[in-house]
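FORM 7B - TANDEM STRUCTURE REPORT

SECTION 1: FIRST PROTEIN
SEQUENCE AND TOKENS:
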Amino acid sequence: MPSPVPDGHVRGALLPIGGAMDLQRRRLILLRFFELAGGSNARIVVIPTASELPDGGREYLEVFGKLGVASVELLPVRERINANDPQASEIIAQATGIFMTGGNQLKLTAVLGGTPVATAIRRANARGVPVAGTSAGASAMSAHMIAYGAKGLVPRYGMVQFGPGLGLTNRVVLDQHFGARHRLGRLIAAVSFNPYLIGLGLDENTAAEIDDDHLMQVIGEGSVTVVDGAGITYSNIHQLKVGQKEAIVGVKLHVLTHGWSYDLIKREVIPPVVMPALSVAPSLEQPAADPEI
């Protein structure tokens, strides 16, 4: 039988993270995932599939162990043959929290897509298990995934390429390392392809917690840029050739920081009841860069 999951969610929360996460200092995002997964009773599975490193994901074993979870296990699903192993699916079925590492989102979906492990992740989330993903692990959560693209502030035709993601949500399209890698243009272009999608641009060391009521809340030291295309009155994206700039009218943009929320159904910003004071402790340590596209 599957393990009990934390109370309070019909569908488990999603916690996409923009990469370069703080693992040693304040650890706001990891502490929130620890709480969602059951605190000291949590059984967390780390999936390192996106990583190209042979020891990718092992740093999370130490970090979650220090937080005091009941158990944390690295699931070495690096090839499709591993993703078809019934034992791997059973390990996910027993988890109260699933964490997907950074790396290359195309590798993640190419290995997991259409396998029992991918099904096990979706089923776990549907019955209440929270799923977190950093960087590539964040991008792959949505049904419509940004596979790769070019940086820039102005949307151009061809600067973003889609691929099918894991399908944990179909309401948003996610981009990561957002401010650091100047990805506003490609997120606006992605939304203009189909303005039903809400674009969420995740800064480094910043997460967008999405609950079962489709309420998104920002956690961390950066910001989440929300691109809402529902009010677009004109876009010529379908008339352009590769490299040409897009003309777009009526797109709405919000930049939200720690404690701010956004209703993905009503497409409305919700300010904090009490404005949070988020001070950044000085540190000489720099988060390691994630190598995904």
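SECTION 2: SECOND PROTEIN
SEQUENCE AND TOKENS:
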Amino acid sequence: MVIINPKYRYVRVGGTRSQRRPNTVFYAHRQDQKVRVCKVFFRNTLAINDRSIRTVLEKMNKVGNVLLESDLRVKHGKQKAVDPIIKEGIKQHIVSILKIERHYLRANTSRHFIEGIKSIAYIHKDYVDRYKEKKFYIANHTSFYRVFTQEFNISLYIPKKDLCDTVAVYDLQAVVQLPKGDVSHFYYKSKLNVFNFTVYDFKTNTCECYCRNGHRGVNELGSCVLQYLKKITLKKDADIVFYSDNCAGQQKNKCMLAIYLYAVRYLGIRSICHKYLIKGHTQNEGDSPHS
């Protein structure tokens, strides 16, 4: 957008047109050339409305053709300050929490971490229960969150470098009948029921598919999991986390645990943790290859 001053302008006596913003022309780039276009073309190309254009023009006029105006939110200066006694109670509670250092990031950061807590809301709930018994004044969640994030170098999440070596989810695709196609001869042929067992690695975004014909019990799926573990255990003392649904006949049973025990004992794996997704919430990245 370029602001221009027309050579001639006809102003009606008593009208408000002279007080409006200046004229603006619009351009589109085509092979390193600027081509003048109409406002409708410009607006539809960028998928914006007139309000976005007016806002940019107002800011350009306000700060001297500079769009980087400072953020004016929460700058009115009328915020309520937290009572020093309440703020000191918040700090004492946060300091009393047991914190640890990350082994792999100790040389790169001074941040400490809290394990076993899902969110700051959980810490605030413990803070409320603790000081309610002492009949002290209690800060709300907003004040507690501000002190926790602005005055402490603490995180609730484990950095990626401290995650397990492999985090994967595995699942079984619905029955696929092969051969498959639009040729009419396929409609009269006997087909095989093929099962596709997929293991999706979250860290590398790669997927291993094990297609087979036959049964789909724990013996078949367990052998696929064992083959996958043999393939990825190039590094000794690896920590592995598996995710899956709650199918008892396929992975939620003692046979699969026996396979994990075998892998830990003979394949050089340090630990295997299997987490079962909540029923009704089992859709995950492993479903992408099924589609």
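SECTION 3: OBSERVATIONS ON SECOND PROTEIN
Residues 218-232 form the longest helix (15 residues).
Helices lie at 39-46, 50-62, 84-95, 120-133, 141-151, 218-232, 254-266.

SECTION 4: SIGNATURE
Preparer initials: ____
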